[in-house]
Amino acid sequence: MVRLSALGMILLCGAAQAAPAHQDWVVTHQPDRFVDRVMMEAWADADKGPARMTLYCDTESGFRVMFLPHRALMPEGPSLMTLTIDDAKPVTLKGDAFGDDLTDVVTVHDTARIQAALSGARHVTIQFQGSAGAAGGDGFTFGDLAAQRAMLMKVCPLSK
Questions:
Q1: Of 33, 90, 115, 130, which sits most exposed with the smallest number of CB within 10 A?
Q2: Does any domain span residue 144?
């Protein structure tokens, strides 16, 4: 019985270490009586460190980008982020940081400016700047987001 428990623990630890660094677009549906809500989600863990970048799209709320730094990065409140998507020119966007001792979530505003570029992104770097000045950055590598680009643009069309 002890050997079985030890074997189970070894297998669980091995599975945890083999967790993927990214998840490309996953499409789900949430039907109700009135509408079939389509939702898409993709994420990538930071190339180094504990952070995660998450992309969301749904027929109800549109396209959204969130960062989960999982570390003391910046104070809660308004922030600026400079994103470099693949080899494109850097784009600076406004956002909000949330969290107490750790920065739990950083939301990004005006994501329509970067949706087309993110729809097929392979690598994204970000520099965060909180209200008190520079705070740090991360890099994220995705797999094949372009495989679902047509679906993303259908679910969350770019507004002009």
A1: 33
A2: yes
